[in-house]
Design brief:
- About 50% of the residues lie in helices and about 15% in strands.
- By secondary structure, the chain is α/β, with parallel strands linked by helices.
- It folds into 3 domains: about 120 residues, Periplasmic binding protein-like II (D-Maltodextrin-Binding Protein, domain 2, 3-Layer(aba) Sandwich); about 110 residues, Helix Hairpins, CATH 1.10.287.70; about 80 residues, Periplasmic binding protein-like II (D-Maltodextrin-Binding Protein, domain 2).
- The strands form 4 sheets. Strands 7, 8, 9, 10, 11 and 12 form a 6-stranded mixed sheet that branches.
- This is Transporter substrate-binding domain-containing protein.
- It is found in: Membrane.
Length: about 375
Amino acid sequence: MALILVAVAACVGAGAAVAQTQTSAELPLPSDVSSKDISVGVKAAPPVAFKLQDGTWSGLSIDLWQKMAGRLNLRFHYVEVPGVQDQIDGVAGGKFDVAMAAITVTADREKAVDFTQPFFTTGLGIATPLNSQRSWRPILHALTSFGFLQAVLALIVISVVVGVLIWMFERRHNEDFGGGVAKGLFSSMWWSTIAATQASTGDFGPRTVPGRVLAALWMMGSIIAIAVFTAGVTSVLTVTQMEGMVQGESDLATVRVGAVQNSSTASYLDSTHIRHRDFATVQQGLDTLRAGKIDALVHDKPLLGWLVGQNYGASLRVLDATFDQQQYAIALPLGSRLRKPLDVALLQTMESDWWKQAVFQYLGEK
């Protein structure tokens, strides 16, 4: 009996092993695909894809593709192009069998090509200058901001209202506020302004009981209002000078913004009505930002962070804010027979510990 149980257990274990092997096996490739030398359109987008000095390619998406190709026993070669749109056009026109690097999935691109499952979720980031140099531009920007103008307008309106009430209380009992409507109102508003600034008004002031009660309330209230106003202005100027004019996406509408031309970033900025200056490459935009000719550069955050860290760390920074979520994926011709096998290989590779280590190695993210 014991021998029978052992034999049954061995058979069950063997069956489970076979099932496991079949489960983890790759999907078979069509014969016309397995024998083909796959053309892969790539572009430089460090740290996702970049060319080494010996001419070989490396980067997060390159390593991922090579792992997937190894799983599927694909033969391939890289073809370098200057931009993402060239990759999309090459795939749509049949020049490339695959295109990959930092290609974000958008509705317009989905119309022209197919995409695999996304392999990385990211978003847009903002590069700004470090505030090591003093500049009047942040101060002028703060002083002309809508919030600042609102505070000034509120003080003016309150001062006018108090002036009108003082005139109504005093016009029949105090010659300082008499002599006609125009003269009386001008005198009362002048007094209200002087009282708000805590300057001496001498003997010029209200004499009736209601007028003096209102004057006392206005003097005490103006002390609090001006103190709060001064503290708010000081805080805005300090934060602006220390952190810069751009602290998040909401500030982009009021500053000089740069983006890479014909990119998904430029499309997003157009859709949100943010004016921007276009550049041929990210490096051109960062050089212009460092020269002070723009105030912010918007681009894919992982690419932006890597470039700034490598070449512009002493003069530029990338804000913590991330917006407009995007996904990187591999582009394929419409109806490509490679799509399903690549999806399976992609997901299997991403489920491995190797992928977590690769993401941390290139992007510093866990």
